């Protein structure tokens, strides 16, 4: 950080000098325009280029230990913001690597294969920040999570295994949206102009959104876990009495809805109500937990305990969202 004196030019224009090192780094020349953005009591000065420069990464599969490692690397490059990823196919056992590259499009939004030859494959990430704001995607994730929870209650009530399997299938879309939001937030932290395009009012909100998107992804994971455990439970005990699980599902849905509404409206008072309602969920959780000790079949008890633990985690995540809502409703003066 450097201190700069303010000078008056022409009696009414206030002027400061720019750091020479920064001018050289950005290749700024006399006559160029700069973007000046007000940010509370601060000013953000940047070059006039609204879009960040396209970033390209080149990798060789001969330098990667396995096809699974390639998958993790490609996801990492997507998240940090690369726009083009060139993969050199320079080893004989390349088929598994090619399969990973093709499958990556199933859970990374905006990724397309633009080159596929004997020697190389190239991925291009084609995303328009204006068309998919961060808040819109978070709302979409909430909508999917909510529908999964509601249908979970229906599946338990009606002993509908088909619906339970459909719930499991929906979890993949949450993963796709999760990766997209993380990529957006990384760019928004670095580029104020991109943050504005994504509908993020303040870059400091990115930390809160990063917590929320992870919470929404984890909620979907736990709903999937409950559905899988229920399917296994149904196979060994088709007439399992799950009325208490159905009731706690309703309470968790209501608490989840309120926490997300508090976040989207930045309503700290509503967020406080969430913590009060969570006490009711905790009481139900405790009552069910005690009943599980009465189940004679050990495998059934274990599966119901697994389901109950996931319900507890979902409720806890609603509290995490409420905490973020309180933090974001408090403006820094």
Characterise the protein shown here.
GO terms for molecular function: DNA binding. The strands form three sheets. Strands 5-6-8-7 form a four-stranded mixed β-sheet, with helices on one face. Helix 2 runs parallel beside helix 3, helix 4 runs antiparallel to helix 5 and helix 5 runs antiparallel to helix 7. The longest helix has 32 residues. 61% of the residues lie in helices and 12% in strands. With 333 residues, it is of the alpha+beta class. The chain is flat, with a radius of gyration of 25 Å. The chain folds into three domains: 41 residues; 70 residues, Translation Initiation Factor IF3 (2-Layer Sandwich), CATH 3.30.110; 196 residues, Methane Monooxygenase Hydroxylase, Chain G, domain 1 (Up-down Bundle), CATH 1.20.58.
Task: Please bin the fraction of helical residues.
Answer: 55-70%
**Widest sheet: strand order?**
5-6-8-7
Structural class: alpha+beta
What is the terminal separation in angstroms?
22 Å
Strand content: 5-15%
Q: Which residue ranges are poorly predicted, with pLDDT under 50 across at least 5 consecutive positions?
A: none
Q: Taking all residues together, what is the mean pLDDT?
A: 89
Oligomer: single chain
CATH architecture of the largest domain: Up-down Bundle
Q: What is the count of distinct domains?
A: 3
What key attributes describe this structure?
333 residues, 3 domains, single chain, two-stranded antiparallel ribbon, four-stranded mixed beta sheet, 10 helices, 12% strand, alpha+beta, DNA binding, 8 strands, Translation Initiation Factor IF3, Methane Monooxygenase Hydroxylase, Chain G, domain 1
